[in-house]
Amino acid sequence: MEDDLIFSQETILGNTGKVTYRQNSWTHLSWFLFCERFENKASLDIRCKFFGNCKGDVSLDHCAGQSRGGEKQLEDANRNFKCNISFVCLLSEAHLFILKELQLRRKMKDSVAEEHLYLDFSHQYRDSIFPLHTSISLFLLSYCDCKLFKIFLVPTSEDVDDQFVTKKLLGDLEVHLISRCQLPVVVQSCRLPAVVVKDGKFCRAGLSVVLRHIIQKTYEADPSRKYVLELLGFKKTCLKACAEVSQWTRLCEISIPLAVEGFLTASPEHCQTIPPDILQFERKLGEPVRVHNDDKIRRQKLQQQKAGAKAAVPVLGKEATEEGETVEMHHRPLPSLELSIAFSKLLVQEEVSGAVNREAPHIRRTKTSDLPLLDHVFAEGLYFTLADIVLLPCIHQFLVSSKKQGKNLVNLPLITGWYRRVQEIPGVKQAAGKCNMELLQLPGLMSAPEELLQDFSSVPDEIEEENEDSHFVGGPRPTMTKLMENGIEAKFSPHPCPSWTLDWTNLPSAVNPGEGKMSRDRALRKQQQLNNLVAAVTKLAKPGDVIVDFCSGGGHVGIVLAHMMPSCQVVLIENKELSLIRAKDRSDELGLNNIWFLQANLDYFNGTFNIGVALHACGVATDMVMEHCIKARAAFVISPCCYGFIQNTVKFKYPRSHQFKEILSYKEHMILCRFADQTAVQLPPERRLIGKQCMGLVDLDRARAAEERNYSVQVISMEPESCSPKNNMFVGTPT
């Protein structure tokens, strides 16, 4: 009888690094099967010495074959033996890491095979699939050589040639076509691209979220491919922030793809000018670079300038020729320290060889303000990241179209220079070839600064000038007095059920927020907050309703609702992956079947729903949730937070209501927002009272804006008010 090894860890990574693997039954074993268990027969060379026929002290040495203790050595790694044994393995941290990594890889292999990737397909234009989000996703899959997902194209029309799409355009990727009505239910509620696990409960949607997930899964499947993980940038934050709060994410994920698609479909007379978003990228490339070790690199650049040195680093790797043969890439001369550092990063080196020496004394004494600025090499600065992967298919289509129309690209020298540098990255040309993308070989273009200034004069700033004036002088009293003179004061509706509470003592532990890492006092306040929201939702909900917990975090609200209302479907939407994974773990522990998890910015959720909920939606997120509910004609129960982060965005302008706009300027509204954040318990009572009044006025403006769109809205204070410094709550229903 052949049994698998059973592992029981007794002491992990302690001072002794001791771990015990036990097998307590008569077993037919072979080291071949042991290695096969970890699916890494080639990289683990294990030899064994053991005592007698009952016990054995076994020492594993990775690729060494040396053993400690014991009297007899197994000469044949595949030799079978029978014994009742207790393996006691003394492992170094390195050995233990190897075994744990192999186990992790097997788990990853089992899990990733169950994930499906769904991409939109509208049409094919030249050498790309549209929308550009799909081309970008396929390009990343090719660059990472990722085969971990089952890929589906979702056509927007019926007249699609299946064979043409899958054979002619997608290279070596195996792609299937599927109609929208055949999509999993949770995916039908999302904008594509989307990735869903096999059980259909956990979905990731949105370009940035999906691309980051592809990178992470590729690296988890093969941790030796560190260059893939490096695409996520410093601290792994590249394109992590949602487009509503990050101007850079919005430019890469939304603005430039849409601008290029519009440029390609516009009539000749409407595409004579360069799209403003392309000019915005050109301007970004001209801005100084800021990196975490900025001072050090700028001093190295100064030293290089003083010495007149010319850096050169080898760009290693292989490129494919047109005949399919591979040739070694040679040393390339690099004109700047920035390029040297950029390419040394690709070689997984800490520093370039020409910049490792300690700076001269006069370099160290130079003031930071006198150091030379760093130039852009790639989209985000010095290093090749996911942002470059996203932008390359878009900029490529724009350049190809411009060149065919005979347009002179002299006014885009930074973009064309970036386009040439990206092609030098090992693997980019191969990935482009797999995607049938014929990269242009552009000559070095030069342009005078005056010409650039003419182009950029028409580019709108991403932030309005009034947003930049964040330093206000004076308090909120003049603004509050101005509103009072026009008959506007902060008023709160009576709480409909102030004493309503859940029976927390009889609820499962996974429902109770106190079972997490909260302190006892904080857990009690969280329970009180949940009492208020659940009470309001209970009065609104009917069997069969879909309830969406926006900005769900760890799922405190959504999990309680799903447990208390089994006849309703609950959807948790959160942009932070780890928070949503924790929520799913709690849901699995409870065995909930009426709950979905969506990692996405809430704009990527387009499903129908009946009630929207949000506990402490930060800043503009409150207005985003409210707007989403109003568009769906859904009721909402929202608790705002972080009033100080409220500011004008692309989608939202303040004040929100016509009534407030007629009285207050944007700056006056911002004064209310700043002081609405001053409600912390350590502040003097009179200061907290003013903060509460400002909160009420800001939320009254929001409520009036909803009422102008045929909603009935109440602004209520949670009970008890001590449950949170931010204790306001909206309850809105369509009229």
From TrEMBL:
InterPro entries: Glutathione-S-Trfase_C_sf, Methyltranfer_dom, SAM-dependent_MTases_sf. Residues 525-647 form the Methyltransferase domain. Transmembrane segments: none annotated. Keywords: Cytoplasm. It is found in: Cytoplasm. One of its GO terms (cellular component) is cytoplasm. The keyword Glycoprotein does not apply. Belongs to the GSTCD family. This is Glutathione S-transferase C-terminal domain-containing protein. It comes from Grus japonensis.
